[in-house]
Amino acid sequence: MTRQTIKTRIAEIVPDIIGLRRAIHRRPELSGREFGTARLVRDTLNTWGVPVQYHLGKTAVSAKIVNGKGPVVVLRADMDALPIQEENNVPFASVNAGVMHACGHDMHTAILLGAARILNESKDMWKGTALCLFQPSEEEEPGGALGLIKGGVFPSKAAAVFGLHVSADHKCGCIGIKPGSDYAGALNFDITITGCGGHGATPEKAVDPITCAASIITELQTLISREKPATEPAVLTVGRIRAGTGRNIIPDAAVLQGTLRTYSDELQDTLTQRIKQLAMLTAKAFGASARVVFEKSYPSGYNAPELADRFKERIKSFLGDGCVIDRTVPTMYAEDFARYQQIVPGLYVYLGVVPQNKKRIEEIHSPRFLPDEGAIETGIAAHIVFALDILGGELT
Question: CB count, 10 Å around CB of 157?
């Protein structure tokens, strides 16, 4: 196949891939329950003659396309949805109450299916192995990537790994690329404050854990504003508070749940100690006590600069100079794709999904997130261009 025949073939299969995307979107599944999605992926690939295997209790699928001796390239898509009630009025809206593909993983899965189909059809252009991983549980720690790594499904000697995420930052037809550090390492924490319950009318006879919790939340933000170097990004968010059973009842305890995001392990370790110290000392000042529990989430991501530079040139050559957006600021989102990047060189890019005639759309994780399906063609092209570069394919 030539450059033009690849482009033509992508355009030819896009209607089918859009149909698959809509089928996946219509029946979303939460993390660890992607049985129907995995079955659809397996059956579709079987129909196209692509060899497949189930993994992780039939919630993951791998497609291993072997074409002689050569390097191994891994292409990855995540398949899980979110516990969100969809508010879009479209024919393919979710029929599963309270579950929605609000993060675009339906797009990711469909795009990788399209890429697998074309790679399987274009073996005259490359040598080696293209491994397509359809991964569950990106949205829920410890993440499906860890399971595929521990199970030996992800090859530790692969030449490179590639993935993408839909982005409301960019127009359809564009790809954002940030070399180096991108996507933060996340640390979850729970702070349990124990006081002494009582009646709201006599707070002096109680130790109020809610008041203490409010003070801890405020003080935690000073770690970011006053103790973190201005040159190092970090975000600390308390996203959940659990306390109390009635408006006039001072409870015995309150629980804060939050997340800390950094790119530097050293900074994360320093702030971890300070969170614990601050919570315990503040609680003591209120006459209460605090117990702090930390749980590592996903590591920080790192896009190999040499892969980013090569991909930029090749995707520009394939799609045109205007398709690449150079991103200079890393995102504070977290992604378990970073687990693969800890093992082999990797590149994770942003696929623009904002329609050309709109300035903006709802962000990911919104019940009204609705990406432009025109981005599917660009997404398939990105996978093909990256894979052919690693596998020695020349797009003439």
Answer: 8
pLDDT digits (tens, 9 = 90+) for 69-86: 999 999 999 999 999 999
**What is the assigned CATH class of domain 185-296?**
alpha beta
Residue 396 has pLDDT above 70, yes or no: no
Q: Where are the domains of the chain?
A: 3-183+299-390, 185-296
The rounded distance, in Å, linking the Cα atoms of 94 and 288 is 46
Report cis status (omega within 30 of 0) of the bond before 142: yes
Give the active site residues: 298, 373
Q: Does domain 3-183+299-390 have CATH number 3.20.20.70?
A: no
**What Cα–Cα distance (Å) separates residue 392 from each residue in 45, 70, 181, 329?**
24, 9, 27, 31
Q: Confidence band (pLDDT; 50, 70, 90) for 219?
A: very high
Asked whether the whole model's pTM tops 0.90, one would answer yes
